[in-house]
Amino acid sequence: MKIAIIGAGSIGLLFAGYLGKKHAVTIIPRREEQCAQLEKEGISIVMEGNKCFKTIVKSNIGYESLNEQDLVIVAVKQYHLPNIKPILVDLKHTIPLLFLQNGMGHIEILKDLNSKTILVGTVEHGALKVNDYTVKHNGIGQTNIAMYKGESSIIDSLVSYNIASFPFCQQYNWEKMLVKKLMINAIINPLTAVLKIKNGQLITNSFYLSLLKEYFLELFSVFSFMDKQLVFEEILKICRNTSENKSSMLNDILHNRKTEIDAILGYILERAKSQKIQLPITKILFQMVKGMEGGSGE
């Protein structure tokens, strides 16, 4: 397949590095400097034990090649989506799109697109961008993909791409899939960012664990159609499996970058408002993270 990946952050690089071993991948970064580096160096994936492999990919700044692709993967952060929405609207409607954003704010944008086939995904891998062409794969998980609308043949192609360190798994209810990831992100990201701790400390410190449990019950009041025990156990499992990792939101705070707090907690607060549900812990965490990233909270 010919695959274009929009976005060259940690997730974009990770996907390009693995998918480029089998498919013809073009990665589209925002900066010309990164584009030149990717063209020159390719993508280096550093795995556990410092094992490393390199993948040669194409890279360009423009979007002219998108209409020649068999699949376009959108791996930019949620807050960059409005900037590329006009590009996606103008794509040939026959080209499938796969969105890999945290949160659920992007669902509103999907409604305005003309593409016949749209997929949404959640990424369970741990990935840390080292430089413009190197990403550390510091937690092997899987990519869950579900059909938002259209035909499923493209899912079959991805699922059949069988590599132990980078599996794809088809899910059949896109909303439950996204809500599960949303709840996980809503718990781990803001708490670790505010407390400035690694993921594992949320469950090894009894006071933090007590806070996590109370906060989880508050969030569950908004998503009561989910399996409470299943989601809670998944949160604990991820904290254990990524115990030495810093969450993406904590990394954003430490590097003075904008976070995805609006796409995660902002979305949940709006949803709770429509259901007339009060979320005091969520609101406090939202305001704290907004203040830490230099936002006014307005």
Automatic annotation (TrEMBL):
Gene3D superfamilies: N-(1-d-carboxylethyl)-l-norvaline Dehydrogenase, domain 2, NAD(P)-binding Rossmann-like Domain
Source organism superkingdom: Bacteria
Catalytic activity: (R)-pantoate + NADP(+) = 2-dehydropantoate + NADPH + H(+)
Keyword Ubl conjugation on entry: no
A GO term for molecular function: 2-dehydropantoate 2-reductase activity
Name of one Pfam family that matches: ApbA_C
Protein's pathway: Cofactor biosynthesis; (R)-pantothenate biosynthesis; (R)-pantoate from 3-methyl-2-oxobutanoate: step 2/2
Ketopantoate reductase C-terminal domain ranges (all copies): 173-293
Enzyme nomenclature, EC number: 1.1.1.169
Keywords associated with the record: NADP, Oxidoreductase, Pantothenate biosynthesis
Ketopantoate reductase N-terminal domain ranges (all copies): 3-149
Matching InterPro entries: 6-PGluconate_DH-like_C_sf, 6PGD_dom2, ApbA, Ketopantoate_reductase, KPA_reductase, KPR_N, NAD(P)-bd_dom_sf
GO terms (BP aspect): pantothenate biosynthetic process
Cellular component aspect of the GO annotation: cytoplasm
Function of the protein: Catalyzes the NADPH-dependent reduction of ketopantoate into pantoic acid.
Family to which the UniProt record says this protein belongs: Belongs to the ketopantoate reductase family.
Protein name according to UniProt: 2-dehydropantoate 2-reductase
